[in-house]
Structure formats: structure tokens, C-alpha cells
């Protein structure tokens, strides 16, 4: 078993407009660029920066599996049976909701029927025995 230790550095400061500026950098080889974002609260700034980092790593993971692979290809056993694959399917959707209340913003999002349609979808093939626990 091999081990990899890397560091993610998060620095949050307030700017002249009382916004929280989060600067996130990673010692992992890719992605190498820093992430900067401004938000109204410290926690929101950190959450947005971490989501941007996660998005980059999801893209790297998906692209590393997609090289020379046909999305429509079906793998079959020697007897001709289809081999079912397991995929970690990740949907990411964000929007700015303008509504009378938090409840209304949620309802407008759920009833809009565009969450999946407009989401960024990442498909990462996983081993059958891998203990991946989807977020609920």
C-alpha cells in the first residue's frame, strides 16, 4: 500500500467591502493554480473554494478514465453477456435564486425541472467492491 501526503492551504481575510476573500492553494501536482473567491461569510467563501477544487479533481479523475474510451461501448464476457459496470455519478448544480423565502427558492429550484438537465455531470468508473457512499 502506498501513501501520498499533500497539503491544502486555506487563507481567509476580509477586504475593504467587508467581504470574505478565500485563497486556497494545494501542494498536489494538479491543479497547480490558486483559487480565490469572495463571499459574504467566511464559511461560504471556504465552501465555494473547496467546491472549485473538488470540481477540478473530478474533471481530472474523469478525464484520466476517458482517454481512448468509447462512451457507447459495451463490454461483454466470453459467453456474450453484458458486463455491468459501476459508476460514481456526481451532479453539481448551482443557481442564484430570487424568491420571497428560502423555502420558495428551494421549491423554485426543485419544480424547475432543470437541475439535472443543467447540472455538471461527472461519471467515474469504480470497482465493484469500492465502498463509495453517495452524499444524501
Can you tell me about this structure?
Helices cover 29% and strands 24% of the residues. The mean pLDDT is 84. It is built from three helices and five strands. The two termini are 30 Å apart. The strands form two sheets. Strands 1-2-3 form a three-stranded antiparallel sheet, covered by helices on one side. Strands 4-5 form a two-stranded antiparallel sheet. A hairpin with a 5-residue loop joins strand 1 (8-14) and strand 2. It is flat, with a radius of gyration of 20 Å. With 136 residues, the chain is α+β, with helices and mostly antiparallel strands.
Short description:
The chain has 136 residues and is an alpha+beta fold. It is 29% helix and 24% strand.
C-alpha end-to-end distance: 30 Å
Order of helices and strands: EEEHEHHE
Rough shape?
flat
The proportion of residues forming helix, as a percent range, comes to 25-40%
Give the low-confidence spans.
none
Radius of gyration: 20 Å
* Main pleated-sheet profile: 3 strands, antiparallel
Count of runs of 4 or more consecutive helical residues: 3
* Strand residue percentage: 15-25%
Give the strand line-up of the largest sheet: 1-2-3
Average pLDDT for all residues: 84
Q: What would you call the structural class? A: alpha+beta
Number of strands: 5
What attributes characterize this protein structure?
single chain; 136 residues; alpha+beta; three-stranded antiparallel β-sheet; two-stranded antiparallel ribbon; 29% helix; flat
Amino acid at each position: 500500500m502506498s501513501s501520498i501526503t499533500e497539503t491544502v492551504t486555506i487563507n481567509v481575510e476580509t477586504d475593504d467591502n467587508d467581504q470574505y476573500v478565500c485563497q486556497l492553494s494545494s501542494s498536489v501536482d494538479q491543479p497547480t493554480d490558486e483559487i480565490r473567491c469572495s463571499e459574504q461569510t467566511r464559511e461560504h467563501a471556504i465552501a465555494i473554494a473547496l467546491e472549485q477544487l473538488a470540481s477540478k479533481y473530478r474533471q481530472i479523475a474523469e478525464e484520466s478514465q476517458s482517454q481512448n474510451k468509447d462512451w457507447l461501448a459495451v463490454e461483454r464476457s466470453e459467453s456474450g453477456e453484458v458486463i455491468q459496470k459501476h459508476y460514481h455519478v456526481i451532479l453539481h448544480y448551482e443557481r442564484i435564486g430570487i424568491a420571497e423565502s428560502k423555502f420558495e427558492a428551494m421549491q423554485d429550484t426543485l419544480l424547475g425541472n432543470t437541475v439535472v438537465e443543467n447540472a455538471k455531470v461527472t461519471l467515474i468508473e469504480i470497482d465493484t467492491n469500492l465502498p463509495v457512499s453517495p452524499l444524501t
